[in-house]
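hey m, so remember when u said the tokens were messed up on ur end? i reran from scratch. heres the input so u can diff it against urs
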Amino acid sequence: MTQVLPQTAQIVIRSIQYRDLETVERLSEAETDRDRVDDPTDAEKSAKALSFRPWRGLKKALSLVWTPSQQTFGAYLADQDNQLRGMIRISPFNRTRSTWRVDRVAVVHRVEQPTDAPTDASPEPSKLPPKLSLATVGSQLLRHSFEKIWEARTWLLEVDVNDTALLALYRQNGFQPLAQMTYWMLAPEQLQEIAEREPDLPNLLPISNADAQLLYQLDTAAMPPLVRQVFDRHVLDFKTSLLSSLMGGVKNWFTHAETVSGYVFEPQRKAAIGYFQIRLCRDGAQPHQAQLTVHPAYTWLYPELVSQMARITQEVPPQTLELASSDYQPEREEYLERIGANRVAHTLMMSRSVWHKLRESKLPMALDSLQLSEVLQGFKPARKPVPGRMALLRLWNQSTTDPKADVNTMPRNDSTSGGTTQGNKPLINLPTPTEFSDPPQEEPC
């Protein structure tokens, strides 16, 4: 039998506020220590534990001159009796904001026991186990996000395959598996050995906004149709605005990082066949993170691009390199296993489509209140149809060719009217029968 929260304990979902930043940071750090399920190769997730503190003043300053900066992410909190019970962070996945991503769902598992609790062994409704608390509070946070973000048609997330509680929560709220992700790590010794090989990349070019169309075509060809439909990327997603470049530069200056990217151009097909982006840590405090995209028809580029990235890492303090692969990229996984890369994480990418239902109004003239006879009444003709010219000709041909036709329908001569009639009404206005005798002769004058 499923347990539910008591009726007196009402959970209120609200947006994050300035005074909640301290509590959110502590909750995020506790969740990060308990389980790490974030994508280690996503450079956009700079604060895996939602560390808003370093960017608090910068975001407040940007809000005075650029309002959309507040809409780059969203966070909602669940309150119960003025106590924080849970938190969710969401962010748009693409520029058109048609796909949103659930970055984290964190729930406070410790439930305070009331002071007047009885001493018997029977558990009270307020003493909820961790899994039940995650299922109730997490579901309310997710459904509130689905209703709040009306522009989102698809939701995307990643969860550790060993986290059964989160998997059950997401499946309960309609998420289905999309792809399996594996994260790999290359040690500094392996990078140094790979860097000794000279990469064969004669057409390696730097990336600019003019190459957005080529990168979009490469990204489209490198993934199956279902994943491409969920990601819903466009050419605009591969362009970088001036303000984003400035923000990225300030971010790299604070974190002592540097981003290097490039793509391989095929001159015969006029297309990009390979792309890499590596985020280097210059102080050696964090591992290097890399993103790699290769056209399925040019899998021989994997050794060349990895060798190129390994040579770039030799210019900074030695550190490990992290990169990811999916189950629809078997050539990449085979190459990483061959060079001795270590598997560090295995996650499941899940997606969910959202169809917002409009509220139905019960009006007296609603369609569901109409009976079948009333519906068919509208298909009846409003007046008697007027016979057309084709109907009259068909009736005349039938009367002249059928000898057994009715007498009333047969034409007859009427000496008084001088025409063909049917009863007292003329059927067709035809000339009177002509006489084939000779015309009268004129008398001589």
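this time it looks ok to me. Residues 30 and 49 are 9 Å apart (CA to CA). if urs says something different then somethings off w ur setup not the seq
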